[in-house]
Amino acid sequence: MRYAFFPGCVSRGGAPELYQSTMAVADRIGIELEEIEGWSCTGAGALQESNPLLGDTLNARNFALAQRMGLPIMTICSTCQGVMAQARVRLEDDEYRAQINGLLAEEGLEYTGGIQVKHMLWIMVEDIGLDRIKSMAVRSLDGVFLAPFYGCYIVRPSAALEYDEFPQRKIALELVIEALGATPVDNDGKTRCCGFPILTINERNSLAMVAKHTAEAQDLGADAMVTPCPLCHLNLDGFQSKAARQVGRQINVPILHLPQLIGAALGLDGPTLGLNRHIVSSFDVALKMGLRV
Amino acid sequence: MQAKVNVRRFNPDEERPKSYTQQFDVEVEEHFTVLDTLIKVREEIDGSLALRCSCRAAICGSCAMRVNGHAVLACKARVSQHLSDDGQVTVEPAGNQPVIKDLVVDLEPFWDKLRAVEPYLQPAMPEPEAEYLAPNEVMLHLVDVMGCIMCGACVSDCTVLEVDPNFLGPAALAKAYRFVADTRDEEDTKRLGIYNAYGGIWDCTRCGECVQACPKGVAPMDRIMALREKAVESGTPPGSYEGAQYGYRHSVAFEEIITHKGRLEETQLVVKTLGMFNLPKLLGMAPMALSAMFRRKMPPPITRAAPGVGQVRRLANRIRWNRLSKVE
Predict the structure, then answer these.
(1) Which residue ranges form the domains of chain A, and what is each CATH number?
(2) Residues of B in contact with A52 (CB under 8 A)
């Protein structure tokens, strides 16, 4: 199975453990990842607010580069996935695509439409298959309680994310958690906002969201939260202690990236998965999953 | 078909008012909406169940409530599509609004916020004898946003309102956009000044809940983003709310970084947003930065441009150039 790999800025910046765990897991499962050479940021929703045309043009450029490789795109970030999915829908309009191709033409690029963009989470469920992942698991995660946390952009708007065609996307994280033998902890916050986009704009509100969701997961008995979104990870992990201070209570919930969870079940060790690189220690949950840390 | 309807109930007249869930077993037809089901409960099982409804045709906006955790118009949601495998559906009052009784919420805060954005035309031209006319084509792009039926579904599911009731919210801000984008309205600067305040356009998280919840395709979040674009582009001063100042800088810095480097430079974005000399705020970020450094994951302050950045820069320049030529 081969994909044009789109790592996204954060896995190459503030969340390197996401990149390293993705590569280790892909290697273990036998997924061939060819990084899109010269990929650019999708705009993360922020560029779309100041310059929507540039946002769509940069996404069309990434799509055109992947089409040259003749491969579907794999993302590892809910935000990249959502922004690309929305751009993809807009670019299905022939007239609009022609306008943007007019800009790309001088760079010798053309996006012909119809690119497939899939998050690693969906690839696990739809392309690899839960049975195969289950059969590859060498560690039992029995007795490990994990709270899923999706990240807004992989949930909404559901039409652009093709939820009608792929209804299992709605519960994909729970399906993966279950397939690996762990127990999903249902939580109200799982499809809500982590607060990251307003961290530097309205920190109080952003931290209130972090506190709300992490405290909920903790109170429901989760050993950790699992997210397919590195931006959620940055906020829920990096600002958890500050958020706990803001609301005046103790919160201590490790946050795992999706491939770290999969890698743990597949027998990879803590340092390979970068479990030692979180701000909130993952030591206890790693031990519970039977990892060397 | 049998449905087990779990209804969140609350009666303020009880001695110790407390909300609770009550389950009703109801025989429903395939075509039944959630509203049909609730009306059947009220008429045949428990006449005390309070709910609001009027048109039953997704026009009046009276029956917004949460079904299985998300806001819908009860008259537009077919109950069979919301039943779990064991035939259950959960119905709660709309979120982020005080509950008066059972499924009826107090809309006063909703109307207060709507009034706060001055939701009426403020033209500079002399008052005409009849209505203020506008050519059809300049109003077409407002058709969707004018389709708002003020049901409050977007307000119910707004993630910001959950933590900060001061936020004006998606419905009011979508209405605000409707007037800023109306060519007959001449008060954009004043309006954008109001919307730049605490609780305004910069406090939205872009979570998309309102876009998903809206039964009429108003897409409030997209309107809020358009207001941000207008505020920055028009040179409206950010005003005294520091969130707006950070929002302006974030918006400009993000585009600047992407067009220069091709990819995001996280450290630069934080410094440029908060301001290089904003020591209190920067120091507030320091513990996180130090922890990240300790774990060898602190992004460097300056990164090398991504391969292929030349193309990104040329594309950005081409768009800027096309825009300028159009203006001229």
Answers:
(1) 2-119 (1.20.1050.140), 130-288 (3.40.50.11810)
(2) 229
Q: Are B171 and B148 in contact (CB under 8 A)?
A: yes
Report the residue of chain A nearest B262, measured CA to CA: A40
Tokens 């206890």 found at: A284
* ipTM of the complex, rounded to two decimals: 0.94
Contact A41 B316 (CB under 8 A): no
User: Which chain B residues contact residue A107 at CB under 8 A?
Assistant: 311, 314-315
Q: Where along chain B do the CATH 1.10.1060.10 domains lie?
A: 110-240
Contacts of B306 in chain A (CB under 8 A): 38-40
- Alpha-helical (H) ranges within chain B are 34-40, 108-116, 136-139, 143-146, 153-157, 159-163, 170-180, 188-195, 209-213, 220-233, 242-261, 266-274, 279-294, 309-327
B22/chain A closest Cα distance in angstroms: 20
φ and ψ at residue B178, rounded to 5 degrees: -55, -35
For β-strands B20-27 and B2-9, DSSP reports them as: antiparallel
CATH superfamily entry for domain B110-240: Alpha-helical ferredoxin (1.10.1060.10)
Interface contact A106-B318, CB threshold 8 A: yes
Q: Give dist(CA A238, CA B285) in Å, integer.
A: 10
Start and end residues for every CATH 3.10.20.30 domain found in chain B = 2-105
Check: CATH 1.20.1540.10 for B2-105? no
Distance, CA of A115 to CA of A67 (rounded, Å): 7
Q: Which amino acid is at A67?
A: Q
Do the beta carbons of residue A257 and residue A283 sit within 8 Å?
A: no
pLDDT tens track of chain B, all 328 residues?
A: 999 999 999 999 999 999 999 999 999 999 999 999 999 999 999 999 999 999 999 999 999 999 999 999 999 999 999 999 999 999 999 999 999 999 999 999 999 999 999 999 999 989 999 999 999 999 999 999 999 999 999 999 999 999 999 999 999 999 999 999 999 999 999 999 999 999 999 999 999 999 999 999 999 999 999 999 999 989 888 999 999 999 999 999 999 999 999 999 999 999 999 999 999 999 999 999 999 999 999 988 888 899 999 999 999 999 999 888 876 5
DSSP A154: G
Q: Nearest-5° angle of CA A183, CA A186, CA A189? A: 135
Nearest chain A Cα to B251, which residue? A50
> Mutating which of B210, B214, B229, B263 best tests the A interface, going by the most A Cβ atoms within 10 A?
B263
Mention every residue, 6+ apart, whose C-beta is less than 8 A from residue A254.
A223, A224, A225, A237, A278, A280, A281, A282, A284, A285
DSSP-derived secondary structure letter, B18: -
DSSP tag of B46: -
Classify residue B197 by its DSSP letter: S
- How many angstroms separate the CA atoms of B74 and B90, rounded? 12
